[in-house]
Amino acid sequence: MTVDDGDDSAAGEAVGHASRGASGAAPSGPPASTMPADARAPLSLRFGNVEVRSRERKVLLGGQPAALGSRAFDLLSMLIELRPRLVTKQEILERVWAGVVVEENNLQTQISTLRKLLGVQLIETIPGRGYRFIAPPGDLASPPARQAAPASSLVPPVQRMTNLAAAAEALFGRGDDLDTLTALVGEHRLVTLLGAGGIGKTRVAQALARGFAGKFTHGVWWVDLACVASAEGIPVAVAHATNLQLGPGDAAAALMHLLEPRETLLVLDNCERLASEIASFVQAAMAAAPRLRIVATSRETLKAAHEQVYRLDPLALPPPDAPIDEARKYSALQLLEHRAAAADRRFALTPANIGVAIRLCRRLDGIALAIEMAAARLPLLGLAEIDAHLADGLRLLRGSSRTAPARQQTLVATLDWSHALLTADERVVLRRLSVFAASFRLDMAQRVAGSQDLDEWSALDALAGLVDKSLVQLEQREPPRYRLLETTRLYAAERLSESGETEAVLQGHAQAMTALADECDDAYWVMPDAAWLARYAPEYEDIQMAFKRACEGGSADVAAATLDALSRLDHLRANLAAIHLHLRSAIGVVPAASPMARARLHLRFSAHFVAGVPQLPKLQSARIAAAAFRELGDRDRLCEALLNVAVVSAMSACFDEALEALALAQPLEQPDWSPRRHWLAASHRTRVHAYRADVVGYRASVRDELRYAELAASPCQAVNARLNLADAALMAGDWDEAIELGRRVVEEVRTLDLPQMTAVAQLNLFAALLGKGDLPSARSAALEALPEAWRNKISGYICSHLSLLAARLSRYESAARLLGYVEAWFPARQLTLEPGEVRSTGLAAELVGAAMSPSAMASLRRAGANLTDTQAHALAEDLLIGSDAGAEGAQPRLSRR
User: Fold this and answer.
1) Contact 475, 515 (CB under 8 A)
2) Do 422-500 and 171-311 have the same topology in CATH?
3) How much of the chain is helix, strand and coil, in % rounded to 5?
4) Residues in CB range of 689: below 8 A, 6 or more apart
5) What is the pTM of this model?
6) Nearest Cα to 608, choosing from 630, 585, 583?
7) 20 to 30 A Cα–Cα from 418, which one of 114, 431, 534, 737?
8) 35 pLDDT exceeds 60?
């Protein structure tokens, strides 16, 4: 069997929890006053028409002095001096505003002044981290060596099987919770962490998961379900998070098969939106996979069987009259002090203000998010003012709504209060960011939040303010990524709806995701797999959200671009089930599509040779795409479409059309193409030669395929090519070479944990041993391949060879039934038997035909054509492990698989 992957691919650190005391955040660089002399700014720096004279404290524009205040000059001088290091807000305040009370927007105002004077590109803002001076090409002074961050601020990544972020924030007062939860996960397979919005469920679950990293053989995986809209999206989201490959067909069933042998911990976050659907999924998963354990976070119980619920209480509150030393033992006050010190370097708890601090924590009911938002406002209002404002807000809210739980009212009141204190730009940016489904890049935030009434630099400054105020979270530091907590996102979405901007902002999100998808698709051709996935896999949820909205709204241009990016991402991660769902969703937008969008959609429909759409023949789509791109003059996509025509024609045994399409594609190939594009052409030629049983052409093209896959730094596509090398030897009848290469590639794909390729590799090894006539070894290999073949939806392929094994074991009735099953299986999936399978079924038919009458054989084949997949599995299982596997036995028993 050839690897028919379709399109263009083959198929924490320990977390300490603070229970007492609070520690400030480590600075990201040395204080400015400790910088060595040679790192100071040069006396004169020139770039473009700008000259900075440090000694004279002047900035000249075109030789004329610019009007620049002393604070702005000090800020510019500091950023130039420390370039290209990122300078934190705290460092700037300590030097430029030493000993001075600063309004919270003062720094942003000075940054805006410098940008207007010098140009917006010279000062980079990283919200939540700081600012950096970008030295222009005309910089005449030699920049200082980049300053390394101190060792204390560098956090080593979690070197375990997990997708958990490496860094973790300090937790306050959750030591007992973590100890109890750790014990519960050890004793129970399903633990639900229950709590109100903003209580801290996600952070506690992340800390809990980090504690288990390295303790589960097949990893600890974080699955964010906030953006999953339906039951069918749950297994796809889990597969993406766990790097499991889903074949075409029923995604849930495929995932259950993959989870079955694994010892894994799944953490399902934000389960409340689809609680009943997630409960059904969880119960099915635990029934299928006995070593699977699940932690869920939710605002309501899942009501699943054997669910162990742990309710997360608010942070511990000090008594109203507690003295300062006693009050500091309580986690709510610890968090307030920690966050307040981070927001205002002058803040300190004293006997004079401890009563107000305690009262504030108690008014906020110990809700972590509410305390963080309040602490972020200290530089502007001060502790007493915050306490007074919140007291009024809570009284108003609780007086008007007695139906909501008290803690929910507290959080809403805090969000209302914090929102009211935002600048106009910050309010706009917050509500517009609510359209993101998951975490987002800085440039995407600027693009979606910015508009005609708010330029991208104002949006950037507003985002920095929102991060400072704990309304937007800095999720990843390098490269920076941001997200809204689900509670905040829902609140901001309400504000967006009230503003009347929803449609316009969703359109802006669609345009941003279209641009990002095109960037993703362009980068695919030139970037190594690892780097490309690291950059674009985090964008999957938002690209998928834009695709879903486009399909529902009939926006074909958006659907076509985002489908391209999703398909690339799904293929390199071998998630064919997701591809199938996306193709099915995209069919509806084709009739109203523009010529380019229609061509791109048909190109994608025809490119997925396994995950097809039954109502849309692949060859028809391939022809439509080729004709359209010829008309549009898109040379590269025309070549790709012609290659698809060649493969799909060969699959249908239309070899003349296949060869003609290859001949038309060949002149379109360019010598300066990237290795990935050359790989694509070679891999398609490989398939055509394989279907034509052209051994010489097959071997030549697969060697090209392997060479270009290695040059493209694509391990998955390279092992795919090595698997095809073994298949080429099998086709040539070089049984010893096929067996040697087959055994080697089986071990390789197992090491890489690629289940779909493992299934194909085991199948080809079985076929090679069968071809050599080593029936005992062939039977052993078939036993090993059988469950993987069914898990990965290639039962028709293995049954082709099992029919020959049955005939050679004189199990003629079984052989005839298997032949009938194979004859029905391939057309039902728009597939054609490959030469290896044609050879096996042909030899089997000859042996069966010599052993029984034509009418008896035809009757048995008709019966086989009506077998379900489950019945065919039982028949294959009986052949291999029945009470008498060497002779015709009893009727096959049904398997429970």
Assistant:
1) no
2) no
3) 60, 10, 30
4) 697, 698, 700, 701
5) 0.79
6) 583
7) 114
8) no
Q: Which CATH number fits domain 171-311: 3.40.50.1820, 3.20.20.80, 3.90.1150.10, 3.40.50.300?
A: 3.40.50.300
Q: Write the CA distances from 227 to 234, 435, 579, 700, integer angstroms.
A: 10, 11, 18, 46
The two tokens of residue 294 are 């699940």
Task: Name the DSSP letter for residue 575.
Answer: B
Burial of residue 693 (CB within 10 Å: 0-12, 13-18, 19+) is middle
Q: What is the mean pLDDT of residues 68-85?
A: 84
Task: Give the C-alpha distances (Å, rounded to integers) separating 229 from 16, 269, 544.
Answer: 35, 14, 11
More confident residue, 746 or 23: 746
- Number of Cβ within a 10 Å radius of residue 510: 24
Residue at token pair 């469950």: 787
Band of residue 135 on the pLDDT scale cut at 50, 70, 90: low
Please report, as a single letter, which amino acid is at residue 501.
E
Q: What is the DSSP letter of 434?
A: T
Q: Residue 383, class by beta-carbon neighbours within 10 Å (0-12 exposed, 13-18 middle, 19+ buried)?
A: buried
Q: pLDDT at position 778, please?
A: 93
Rounded Cα distance between 209 and 224, Å, is 13
The amino acid that residue 874 corresponds to is A
C-alpha torsion sign, points 325, 330, 336, 341: positive
For the chain, first and last CA: distance in Å? 24
Given a contact cutoff of 8 angstroms between Cβ atoms, the answer to whether 508 and 453 are in contact is no
Contact assessment for residue 795 and residue 869, using Cβ atoms and an 8 Å cutoff: yes
- Top CATH class of 422-500 equals mainly alpha
Element (H, E) at 725: helix 715-732
Rounded to a whole number of angstroms, the CA Rg of the chain reads 32
Task: Name the helix (H) or strand (E) containing 51.
Answer: strand 50-53
